[in-house]
Prior knowledge:
Blueprint: E1 3-7, H1 16-30, E2 34-39, H2 44-50, E3 54-57, H3 68-81, E4 86-89, H4 92-105, E5 109-113, H5 124-128, E6 136-139, H6 142-152, E7 159-161, H7 178-187, E8 196-200, H8 209-216, E9 224-228, H9 236-248, E10 254-259, H10 264-270, E11 273-276, H11 286-293, E12 297-301, H12 306-309, E13 317-319, H13 324-335, H14 339-356, H15 359-373
Parallel strand pairs: 1-2, 1-4, 2-3, 4-5, 5-6, 6-7, 8-9, 8-11, 9-10, 11-12, 12-13
Helix pairs in contact: 1-15, 3-4, 7-10, 8-13, 11-14
Amino acid sequence: MPTVLQVLPSLAGGGGVERGTLDISRALVAAGWRSLIVTGDEPDRERATAAGAHHAALPVARRSPAQAPGAVRRLSRLIAEEGVDLVHARSRWPAWLAYYAARRTARPFVTTFHGAYSTGWPGKRRYNAIMTRGARVIAISAFIARHIAETYAVEPDRIRTIPRGVDLSAFDPARVAPERIAALRDAWRVPDGRPIVMLPGRLTGWKGHLALLEALARVEEGVCCLFVGTVDTRREDYCARVERRIAALGTTHTVQLTGACEDMPAAYLLADVVVSPSLRPEAFGRVPAEAQAMGRRVIASAHGGAFETVLDGETGWLVPPGDAAALANALREALGASAALCDRMAAAGQAHVRRNFTLEGMCSATLDVYRELLPGQP
């Protein structure tokens, strides 16, 4: 029974890194393999166990060069004791530790490149480059694969493009009971009879909340706008800016900050139009993919992974990032779309996700990468 170790700072937060780790753990167990997850947090044990994994808490989260040698030794010892066959790193600092531990123990090393990391300060490019040291480097979109090849000169034969996957057993309109949608409508006090525009995503500047507000100011009255997501505590000043802008708009639009949502399939069905107006390129763009799986009309910024997740004019609309006028025009088109156009786009969007962005496809392709480096495994 081969054992795969995945290492990352934490399983908290529910982002793409954390979700992907747990998804792969479940896929490993289903395939008859053994999953081991290392994080820096002991409370992660419950999440890991629920995904069928064994868990170990080691000092892999805090960037501490002074503690790095000890952390590498402890990780190396764990690899040997647990009979780990392959090490998969999903974040930069843990990747530095895991790389040296994998070298010490002669285990294959794999990385997943989850974002187009900035290279703004001296040494940052070298720090980021640890994510290119894998015998295989998994890119979560074609956009990221190009970024890796162009920025870090990684050989194409080491890169494997594996897009993030949508769990179609959860993101399926037929499986969402009306009561779940009604519960969110009541909890958020959403007014009846108004078209609903939704921006799912953490309340942080680059997600484009202010750009959407400026676009809504150009659209006729009567739209209800929902910002669904947690507040980034490191960016509370941005939250205040958003609230000031909402106040400045007066009663022209109804805008609500709902906070986090535990039932996103129902939330998408509550919306008429889902918007992802990110100002920086999304590495993949989970929101447009999930929204299309739910048959929603989608508008996204025309850069990064959105060029792959949204087919402009076929499954949704792409607009220049930060262009409030273009976003307003797309909102008018989406809100005014005929029933026939809505049905056609919904069907095209759902088919696009089923062809390219399923959870099963992501897990299968990732296990195939492991098999490349562990020949003879089932």
